[in-house]
Specification:
51% helix, seven-stranded mixed sheet
């Protein structure tokens, strides 16, 4: 693992280097009064802001930001030296100085910090031990770290929804419908569901409230799931005829959807319950069309999800939105012309949990971000905190290491860790890594101090 500028920034933030004798490349001794703070997310410029130091030969203090690079010439390669966002850089911290960077003919103070060999060895082993050590640290610190990661995750999801909002002429109702249908898929499976949602005109859907057959016809038809002419099932024929009438009345988007990306599920509604591809990585009760049956039931009962979600402050009532009963036909069928045992088919609590996590909370937060409404953003976080901790591959792995929790806000933090830090080997940006290295460096310093005293 090579030295990175992110690791140098981590060393600076956590003071993982000798600070008692800091000398610039000119040989001048400096005294750092404030190590500064990381720049706010989304803000351009140097990594650390609000730093102050004084040169030993001067009385005046220097105030500004710190820029990090492995080699000092890297900053020139980035072509940001003369950009306004970097105009307040007063100190250039590097691992190797091959040139002193200048701005407008004035050299910028350059400081070389060296990585302790023992610390570098510890850094190499971080990925093998971080989750185990995380389970052992103070609970308050655990929650603080996971809260930041959970907040980052919901913000990332919300930003995706804001992009959709801007693409549909800033229409919140349509954005909410798209976000809801999109949330039926997980990960890469979101794409075909989003394509479907974009093919469903919200102004048409809104006229179909409480007309489940019409909503199913619109959704199934636009999903291209009404292609089977082999069945004489009366309800299938009714849905097909309804869709033909909708198509005749409205000019519908007929672009094809690439459902093959949704884990290999075939395109025919009637076949989906019979012949999912053998290697499909999906449970039978999570296949594409059963999901759309549920979506149709929910949307026919509540076409304007946006108003209900934004206005409701009762968590249990929010959950009730997704408990809409299936139509009478789907209570007794698993597919068109495929009868099953009669009985009420309820959506599982786990599926509602996923709606709260992947749809409601990000939608609320997106609305709060755009309208600058902190109360709604706080409510979005509270929705996650009230939703049970998730049980998935990531949380199971952390459980084996000794960590578990009760809130989806924290399980979202775990997923953010694994997908954005661990999976990409971004140990230098990891707060757990920083905690481990800071603790280890204290031991190094204590050991060497003791050796010197002997």
């Amino acid at each position: 693992m090579t030295i990175t500028k992110e690791f140098l920034a981590l060393m600076w933030r956590a003071r993982l280097f000798e600070t008692s004798d800091l000398r610039l490349t000119t040989g001048e001794l400096i005294h750092v009064h404030s190590m500064g703070l990381p720049r706010n997310e989304g803000v351009r410029g140097a990594e650390i802001q609000n730093v102050s130091y004084r040169k030993a030969t001067q009385e005046v203090r220097h105030y500004g930001s710190v820029k990090f690079n492995v080699k000092s010439s890297d900053w020139y390669d980035e072509k940001t030296v003369n950009q306004p966002d970097f105009s307040n850089v007063i100190l250039h911290v590097v691992s190797e100085c091959d040139t002193v960077v200048s701005r407008n003919g004035v050299a910028i103070d350059t400081l070389i910090i060296s990585v302790d060999p023992a610390l570098e060895d510890k850094r190499h082993s971080l990925a093998l031990e971080c989750t185990s050590i995380f389970a052992q640290i103070d609970t308050a610190y655990q929650e603080n770290i996971l809260s930041r990661q959970g907040a980052d995750r919901i913000k990332r999801k919300s930003q995706e929804l804001i992009e959709i909002y801007n693409s549909v002429h800033q229409n919140w109702e349509r954005t909410t419908m798209i976000a809801f249908i999109r949330s039926l898929g997980m990960g890469k499976d979101k794409k075909p569901y989003e394509e479907l949602a974009l093919k469903i005109p919200f102004h048409i859907l809104k006229t179909m409230e409480n007309d489940t057959t019409a909503v199913e016809a619109l959704i199934f038809g636009q999903a291209e799931f009404l292609r089977n002419d082999d069945t004489n099932d009366p309800y299938f024929l009714e849905v097909m005829d309804t869709y033909k009438q909708i198509k005749k009345t409205y000019k519908l988007d007929q672009r094809p959807i690439e459902w093959s990306t949704a884990r290999g599920i075939k395109n025919s509604l009637s076949r989906i319950w019979k012949t999912a591809e053998p290697k499909a990585r999906i449970r039978p009760n999570s296949m594409t069309s059963p999901q759309l049956v549920r979506a149709a039931a929910i949307l026919s009962h509540e076409t304007s999800l946006f108003n209900r979600i934004v206005q409701e402050r009762d968590y249990l009532k929010l959950r009730e939105l997704f408990a809409a009963p299936l139509s009478k036909y789907w209570q007794t069928h698993s597919g068109f012309g495929i009868p099953t045992k009669s009985g009420e088919k309820k959506i599982s609590e786990l599926r509602i949990d996923l709606f709260m996590i992947n749809f409601v909370a990000p939608m609320l937060n997106a609305y709060g971000m755009v309208t600058k409404n902190d109360e709604i953003r706080d409510w979005a976080i509270e929705v996650l905190q009230l939703t049970p901790y998730e049980n998935n591959a990531y949380t199971k792995m952390w459980a084996k290491k000794g960590f578990t929790s009760t809130s989806a806000f924290y399980s979202q933090g775990v997923i953010q860790f694994e997908t954005m830090l661990c999976k990409t080997s971004a140990c230098d940006n990891c707060p757990i890594g920083a905690h481990i290295l800071a603790d280890f460096y204290k031991k190094i310093v204590a050991y060497r101090t003791k050796q010197e005293e002997l």
